[in-house]
Amino acid sequence: MAYLAATALTEYRQQYSSASLDKFENRGTGLGLLSLAKRDTPNLISTAEIIKARGTAERATKVQVLQKIAFSNTSVRTCTGATQSSVSALVTLSWVTIANGFHMVPSQYNNNDIAYVEDFKHKMQQMELAMAKEMDTAIYTKLNAVKSTTFTAENAPFAFSSSVVQIPQASKPTYLSELYQSMFQDDFVGPFNIVASPALMSVNQYFANQGAGNSANTVFQFGDFSFDYSNRVALSGGANATFFIMPNGSIGILDWIDPESRRGARLSESNYWTTATLPMIGVTSGLHVQATCADNTTEGGAGLEASVIENFNFSFDYALVSPYISAGASPIYKADILSL
Asked: Which of 111, 156, 195, 327 has the highest local Cβ count within 10 Å?
């Protein structure tokens, strides 16, 4: 037996905060749909009044709108008084609840290299990412549901099939310019937002760098367009890239928290409601915190048969909003850049 065997160093473990070997294990994702909806909301609807007035989840939320009027001109003056009625309508917002949460066992960290705050931050990031992905997917579903089913631009440079604008390869270098023309003929003007599958990145990077010093300058067309990318925008079959194009003020998202969280209800020092900011999503969430006694030996081992467990339950409601259209083209178009 070696003379110093009993005092040999055991395995070395670097502090968790000093390394980032798990940065790709816990990587984020492209959330362009959510980013666009948050950014575009003020261009579409005023949120403060609606959120304040909702009160409880039982109260329906409706927005007033006026339908367009089809006035008919004449070429004759008359003594008869002109009449024309307006038609109003109500748009009912559809609210969805999203909830998630996790637990913490404080005593578990007395015998662990991972500290309480490190594990808490890890769980928060992963939980918020799961919620953000679900919301990003919901926005994609919403855009698909409200996309225009008509494309009435005269002499439109693109075909329109199954409610999708078909952009051929020949038009790819100037696709934005030609899309602007088509949207203008449907009476939609820029600036425009585009949220796309990641496949559009390479298309834009190439043509956005064909400037005055190149044989073909394609940069001119990018000025009125803002781009977001999401991994939830599915690439259509037979397409190089798929995207939605819409004028400013075409998609919005409202968020609302429950009454108990808003008023900071408290049953005890270890059972209460409050609010918390979720920065990845950009919302304030309701938060119910509970601490109680439980058998935590499964997680922490012997000695935790009767120990503290903390539960953190996050929740909020959200509603997706798009412009009201009584008839005709929607301002939201879906488009494919075709492979052939």
From this structure: 195
